[in-house]
Amino acid sequence: MGRKEGRAKQGDGILLPAGVSHVHPWSVSAEELHVRQTTEADPPDSAGLVASLHALVTLFGLAAAGKVNHKGLPNLLQLAVLIRSTMRATYIAGIPITVQRMVFGGLARVGKAIGYRTAYPAYGVLSDAGVQAAR
Fold first, then answer.
1. Which of 18, 36, 45, 78 could form a disulfide with 41 if both were Cys (CB 3.0 to 4.6 A apart)?
2. Crossing angle, helix 76-86 and helix 46-64, to 10 degrees?
3. pTM of the model
4. Torsion-angle region of residue 98: left (phi > 0), alpha (psi -120 to 50) or beta?
C-alpha cells in the first residue's frame, strides 16, 4: 500500500484509504489465496459498480471458455476493453494515470472496433434480478 509492503494472515483486514495506490494481494506460498474485497464509493457510483460486475461476469465466462492465460487474463485487446470500462476512478499502481488513460483508451478503441465487448450473453447477463447464467 503506497510504498509499504506487508504480510497478512487469515482473517486479517486491510483498510485502503481513498487515493492510496496499492497492488492486490498475492500468495507467497503454493497455497490457494482467497480474498474478499469490499469497496465503498462516496458518493455512490452505480455505473461503476455495474461496469465492474459486467467485467467480472465476462472474466469468469472467458475463463470457463478457456480464453484466458495462466494468470487468468484474456488477450490484451479484450483486457483493455474491460479495464477501460471499469477504470473511471481506479488505476494500476506504478504507472502514471495519464499514460494508462492513453494506452488503455487506444487499445480499448481497437478492441471494440474488432468486436470485443464488456459483456457477452453467452457468459451470463447482469439484470435487476442478479446475474442470469448463460443457457
1. 45
2. 160
3. 0.70
4. alpha
